[in-house]
Amino acid sequence: MHNRVVHSRFDTLAAVVLPGTGSDAEFAGDAFSAAFASVGLTTIPVEPDPTGVVESYVAALNAATRRHGRIVVAGISLGAAVAARWAATNASNTAALALVLPAWTGDPAGSPAALSAQFTARSLLEVGLDAVTAAMTSSSPAWLARTLSRSWATQWPALPDALDEAAQYRSLELDELARIELPTVVVGAVDDAVHPIDVAQNWARALPNCALRTVTLEMIGHDAGCLGRAAVDGLDLLSPQPPSC
């Protein structure tokens, strides 16, 4: 029996993963490394620079292409928006896309994720990291509280700037997504108010070569790797299978 090797389909051994707003490379790795490894990909989770999150993501993507050539590009929330925009202008360097928990389309103004990021940024400036972290911990699932407590502490004191930057980042519009012909999977959470499932559904409908997969917040809390498994499952559907031996 032979294991499937993703480079025979995608012509790459590397996948770059961009975390969501306020999150970190550790969570991105937890979400994707095992699933990508199972199909022959090495995961490169990017640690965001809170003084310039998007710039650090783009720099990491460009560096990966210089080293590896074509890459699989994955992103969570803000990372999904950056991944889609980068791939739209770097299609020749992109083997496939995994867009997880997209938070908004086009202008972020008024979206739940942007409003949450702006509120948190203001609160951090007004009362400080410890108080805001305590409030978040008391109102969040344990897995999310652990993740954000760790990443927020690492990104402090530039965290408010990072949150404000994310809340202003313009995602692609649906007609721009429709021009991305790369194999793409969109993974949405059916019960996530901050990342509404209809955003994921709209993205999946717009992208011409796309599979939609869904998870729940409980599934993510039990094992963040469900995100990566959902992504690999969707890409498997879209990608030509290697010949059997």
Verbal overview:
This protein is an alpha/beta fold and 245 residues long. It has helices spanning 7-10, 25-37, 53-68, 78-89, 112-127, 129-139, 142-155, 159-167, 174-177, 197-206, 217-222, 225-238, and strands spanning 14-18, 42-45, 71-76, 94-100, 184-189, 210-215. The chain has a six-stranded parallel sheet with strand order 2-1-3-4-5-6, sandwiched between helices. Strand 1, helix 2 and strand 2 (42-45) form a beta-alpha-beta unit.
In short:
The protein has 245 residues and is α/β, with parallel strands linked by helices. Helices cover 53% and strands 14% of the residues.
Topology:
Blueprint (H helix, E strand, L loop, with lengths): L6 H4 L3 E5 L6 H13 L4 E4 L7 H16 L2 E6 L1 H12 L4 E7 L11 H16 L1 H11 L2 H14 L3 H9 L6 H4 L6 E6 L7 H10 L3 E6 L1 H6 L2 H14 L7
Parallel strand pairs: 1-2, 1-3, 3-4, 4-5, 5-6
Helix pairs in contact: 2-12, 5-6, 5-8, 6-7
Structural features:
245 residues; alpha/beta; 6-stranded parallel β-sheet; globular; disordered C terminus
**What characteristic shape results from the CA principal axes?**
globular
Q: How big is the Rg?
A: 17 Å
Ranges where pLDDT stays below 50 over 5 or more residues in a row are 1-8, 241-245
By DSSP (H or I, 4+ residues per run), the number of helices equals 12
What can be said about the biggest beta sheet? 6 strands, parallel
Tell me what portion of residues adopts beta-strand conformation: 5-15%
Helix fraction by DSSP (H/I, runs of at least 4): 40-55%
- Kindly state the number of beta strands: 6
Distance between the termini: 8 Å
What is the oligomer described by this structure?
single chain
Mean pLDDT: 93
Strand order of the largest sheet: 2-1-3-4-5-6
Structural class comes to alpha/beta
Element pattern in H and E = HEHEHEHEHHHHHEHEHH
